């Protein structure tokens, strides 16, 4: 399965420049995601969707990863439009993982387990969520919360879609993970500090 890392946002909330290039323990955030994808056994190609807002990210990926990782230049107009363009322009007509660039705690094992869950969910798309209660436990205040059958859940920033139907509404499955490692994405300086503390204990 191919993976597209969405790395075209302006990162205004964090306020530290291009978010994918913000360093965590001396390493850019996007490197954590790329490195985990490279080690995941179910991932084939890795593509990074950049935009005019993230020129440094484009340079970093090209210089740091060369031919191993392909950069896709999107318009940067909106998340969905950029995602569709990245998938279509890359010729992906099979299931593809769409993942945010600000998830430094994802591991290869976690990514493989998500793909395993997709393979048996019998739907064309799958979104990964975490319980709101888990966010509270690790001190996260999410921006988006959904009510799913009476349970409050938070999108984790990882989805699998069928690239063949990327422009269509797809039947979906909500995959609920209770793994604190995936609960932390980086939106604030406090999030960065929390991730730093977790990584230091690994």
Q: Look at the helices and sheets and give the structural class.
A: alpha/beta
Could you tell me the number of beta strands? Answer: 10
CATH fold name, please?
Spore Coat Polysaccharide Biosynthesis Protein SpsA, Chain A
The H-and-E topology, N to C, reads as EEEHEHEHEHEHEEEH
Helix content: 25-40%
Number of helices: 6
Q: Note the overall shape.
A: globular
**Beta-strand content bin:** 25-35%
The CATH architecture? Alpha-Beta Complex
The chain-level mean pLDDT equals 92
Count the domains: 1
User: How far is the N terminus from the C terminus?
Assistant: 28 Å
Question: Can you summarize the main beta sheet?
Answer: 8 strands, mixed
Low-confidence stretches: none
If you compute it from the alpha carbons, what radius of gyration comes out, rounded to the nearest whole angstrom?
A: 16 Å
Q: Which homologous superfamily in CATH is the superfamily?
A: Spore Coat Polysaccharide Biosynthesis Protein SpsA, Chain A
Keywords: Nucleotidyltransferase, Transferase
Protein name: Putative adenosylcobinamide-phosphate guanylyltransferase CobY
Domain MobA-like NTP transferase: 3-119
Enzyme class: transferase
């Amino acid at each position: 399965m191919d993976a597209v890392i969405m790395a075209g946002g302006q990162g205004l909330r964090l306020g530290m420049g291009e978010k994918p290039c913000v360093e965590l323990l001396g390493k850019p955030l996007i490197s954590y995601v790329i490195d985990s994808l490279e080690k995941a056994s179910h991932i084939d190609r890795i593509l990074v969707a950049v935009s005019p807002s993230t020129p440094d990210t484009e340079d970093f990926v090209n210089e740091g990863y060369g031919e191993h990782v392909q950069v896709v230049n999107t318009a940067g107009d909106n998340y969905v439009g950029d995602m569709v363009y990245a998938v279509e322009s890359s010729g992906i007509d099979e299931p593809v993982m769409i993942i945010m660039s600000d998830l430094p705690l994802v591991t290869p094992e976690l990514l493989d387990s998500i793909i395993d869950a997709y393979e048996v969910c019998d739907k064309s798309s799958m979104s990964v969520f975490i319980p709101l209660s888990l966010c509270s436990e690790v001190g996260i205040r999410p921006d988006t919360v959904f009510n799913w059958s009476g349970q409050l859940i938070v999108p984790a920033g990882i989805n699998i879609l069928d690239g063949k139907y990327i422009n269509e509404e797809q039947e979906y499955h909500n995959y609920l993970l209770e793994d604190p490692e995936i609960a932390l994405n980086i939106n604030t300086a406090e999030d960065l500090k929390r991730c730093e503390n977790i990584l230091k204990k690994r």
